[in-house]
Amino acid sequence: MIRFRPLSMVPIALYACAKPDPTPTWTGEVAPIIADHCAICHRDGGVAPYAFTDYTQAVALAASMPSVLQSGFMPPWRADASCRSYADDLALSADDQATIIGWATGGTPLGDGVDSAEPGAYGITSIDAILALTTPWTPVETPDEERCFLFPYEGGDGFVTGLWADPGDPQEVELVRAFVVAPADLGPWEALDDTDPADGWSCGGDPGGNALPTTWLGTWTPGEKHGDFPAGTGIPIAAGSKVGVQIHYHVATGRPDSFAMELSLASTVEHRASWVTVADPTWPAGITVPAGSTGAAFTYEDVVSSAVTVYAAEPVERDFGTAATLDSSAGCLVDVPAWDPDWQRAYAFSTPQSLAAGDTVDVTCTYANPGATDVLGGDGPGQETCRGMLYATTN
N or C, which end of the chain has less CB nearby within 10 Å? Predict the structure, then answer.
């Protein structure tokens, strides 16, 4: 006898396994990824030349997304994840990249959620001081100009606990470094400022020419989300000081820049912090990158004299750099296997790194020089440098 099994009893898994995965939608899967990893630059008023924080903007750029993602050109996050985990990491996971590419090549469906990929809150939590140019500065040097300005600090003794740059023209500014000049050290800095009748002074490389004393506050670069220093830490600032900024203008557009810097301040902090330099004392003068060379490398190792906690690391090279690493005997700090001077930045750690007395820290810089003449060490255009910067507190 032939027996028939009712259709409803056929295992539904036979049908489910043949069902194709749905194409990601903009509102469902793609927009949240863009908000977390891309929109801090690609927003209205951001550093990128175009925004894509809504569906219409994103669809117009969808055809280019696969190539820029697969090549690693975007997002511009250069630290290798195998070294350690970082806060505000812009790098895309393989799954996130596949989601965006699947959407871009799968008909760019909208979805039925909220059409927004805005980046959310960014900057510093508390704005306690604003240092602003009284007259906007128009960069004139090409292709790059580095200009320094001194701003009076009108607060009392205390600590800087965060900083945020607010360029009037974000597409001009590639990098901002901030530093404090103590009252006792102001004389030579103000004399340097007075050498140029225009506001500020030209300051390629080191703002004070490797000679004038400073206390580094930190670096701001396009693409950063937050400028608060690690909780409970701050860098001392004294009443009567001045705050200096070195602005690296990447493109001279002829448009004036009404630059301002915002600071968070505290009267006390739990841990006094500073930026510690790791570099051979003979550098940068001792660096020579031979003509026609690739893979020329310089390494310096230092010994930790007393226990510290490291919260962030920044390798520093110039245009001939190809890779940079800050390592320690207690663990990797930052590894940038494909150096790009247009995207240098400080990398804040997800988890601070403790270093004990006797631990070692080393910095390695690698270069390529395709030219016919040697590249000499220095902090100016056409020269090379190598150093590591660590944001640290003593234990």
Answer: N
